[in-house]
Amino acid sequence: MPVVLALDAGTTGVRTRAVFSDGRPSVSSYREFTQHFPQPGWVEHDAVEIWEAVKATLLDVLGQLDEPVAAIGITNQRETVVAWDRHSGTPLHRAIVWQDRRTAARCDALREAGHLPLVRERTGLVLDPYFSGTKMAWLLTPEADGGGGVPMGPDLALGTIDSWLLWNLTGGEVLATDTTNASRTMLFDIGARAWSAELCDLMGVPLDALPEVRPSSGRFDVTSDRCGIPAGIPVSGIAGDQHAALFGQACFSPGASKNTYGTGSFVLMNVGPDCPPPAEGLLTTVAWTLADGSTTYALEGAIFVTGAAVQWLRDGLGIVAAASEVGPLAESVPDAGGVILVPAFVGLGSPWWDPYARGTVAGITRGTTRAHLARAVVEAMAFQTRDVVEAMARAAGREVQELRVDGGAAAMDLLLQLQADQLGVTVRRPVDQETTALGAAYLAGLAEGVWGSLDEIAAAWQQDAEFRPADDRTLADAGYQTWLRGVERSRAWATD
Q1: Calpha distance 400→379 (Å, rounded)
Q2: Exposure winner among 111, 214, 262, 305, fewest CB in 10 A?
Q3: How far apart are CA 184 and CA 186, in angstroms?
Q4: Could you tell me the maximum CA-CA distance found in the chain, to the nearest angstrom?
Q5: Residue 373 belongs to a domain
Q6: What's the pLDDT score for residue 353?
């Protein structure tokens, strides 16, 4: 039976996964890579290290397979920017990661100059350092002016991680991206589905340095043995990680919604084939484009820190030795003992969009224990998701009927029950929770005929567990009101 490989290039590591069309257990390989924090609020990756991790995991999985590979799909951390030389293939600076906040002042200046309405109308995004456009502009700013000092010229390539991986997989032959990743750059007109020359001029990004934009499902090219992997494997699907998860969760109908609890959390709702107007506090984005050119749009709420707060408990405070301890520790107490923890470590995303917010812990008493802090971290995941879902329901004019969930923290039954109670809707967890990789594989396999239709993909979705909300929401609503008080205390904390 055909096998499709998914290259899942996340924020902290890379996984290559084999997805079999007959539903057999997958084969996978994972490798972490280094996180660089050169200054407070700055986050960087070594693009070569990411590529080497991809190559190593890809070769590992290929070595475990007997079947020929029908296609490769790529899914990636979004908004992270790489600048490289097309001639040599050498990165010209460390990659600037989506979490990075160094361009907050530039975003403020653009907002004060009155450019927010243009950005909102063309891109569906907000002026925030989260997105790629101002990161690219910083890279191209001379070092004397406080920038990255990357030289402009005919050999300059600027792209997100998917473009960097595709370039390497094809031996430097193809500079391309898909509509989902392009839609996160602040340079892409999501209605026209093309780069905006006006926005490129505004940001100071040369249009000819950007990759060609293609559908998310469709053959980009084939692998080249020049990059050290077997030649001739079609690369036929690309999508940003959250779009791939929406696809992998089979959210193919308008109104279908999912949340991925990863380093951050990202709630997406399918809103159909028509590009909606900008919505207060939310992002409008391309969900995916299929090979026939049909495009689906989504509303998105981007939460910057959820799973990263668990890592902070482990690495920053040292109150747990492993992330897996947080769930049982949080369950050891009936509630957070009045503690609210707002994990605004890199500012707040949807629906607040405050890059100057900072992490806040309130309500501590002499009776507060590490278990209460762990519980507060888990509760914060549910509270932040409620912030987004309520804004989404107002914008879409429809209530979320159920929420499909995935990501590492979705393994915690406590979290999902709290989530159901906060939202007042059923939360469903699939058997296969690696939906980001699944979505990339489905997009690639759909292009190559491994799966014949969206209906066939939807039929493969299987439920592991469901969590129904409590009938009485009094406690849930009271906890949420306390959360909102904590959010107000975290906002506008940093002065630069």
Answers
A1: 20
A2: 111
A3: 6
A4: 64
A5: no
A6: 85
CA-angle at 312, arms to 262 and 367, nearest 5°: 120
pLDDT of residue 442: 96
- The per-residue pLDDT for range 110-137, each reduced to its tens digit, is 999 999 999 999 999 989 898 999 999 9
B/e letters for 137-166, b = 16+ CB within 10 Å, e = fewer, are bbbbbeeeeebbebeeeeebbbbbbbbbbb
Count up the domains in the chain and report the number.
1
Per-residue pLDDT reduced to its tens digit, 290-338 = 999 999 999 999 898 998 899 999 999 999 999 889 999 999 999 999 9
CA 172 from centroid of its chain's CA atoms:
26
pLDDT the model gives residue 384: 96
Q: How many CB atoms lie within 10 A of CB 39?
A: 10
Structure tokens at 406: 């995935």
CATH number at residue 121: 3.30.420.40
Can you read off the two tokens belonging to residue 275? 């590009």
Under 8 Å between Cβ of 187 and 206? no
Question: Which two tokens mark 286?
Answer: 């391309």
Question: Per the domain annotation, does 346 fall within a domain?
Answer: no
Write the CB contacts of 138 (distance below 8 Å, at least 6 apart in sequence).
96, 102, 103, 106, 147, 148
**Are the C-beta atoms of residues 345 and 331 closer than 8 Å to each other?**
no
Q: What is the pLDDT of residue 396?
A: 79
Is residue 79 assigned to a domain?
A: yes
Length of the chain equals 496
Q: Is residue 298 part of a domain?
A: no
* Omega before 142 within 30 of 0, i.e. cis: no
Contact criterion met (CB below 8 Å) for 268 and 243: yes
Q: What does the alpha-carbon distance between residue 282 and residue 292 come to, in Å, rounded to a whole number?
A: 28
Q: What is the mean pLDDT of the chain?
A: 93
Give me the domain span that covers residue 194: 3-256
Burial of 359 (0-12, 13-18, 19+ CB in 10 A): middle
Query: Which residue is it, tokens 């050290």?
Result: 228
* Collapsed DSSP state (helix, strand, coil) of residue 341: strand
What is the distance in angstroms between the CA of the first residue and the CA of the last residue of the chain? Answer: 56
Q: For 210-357, where are the alpha helices, taking DSSP H only?
A: 241-248, 307-311, 326-331
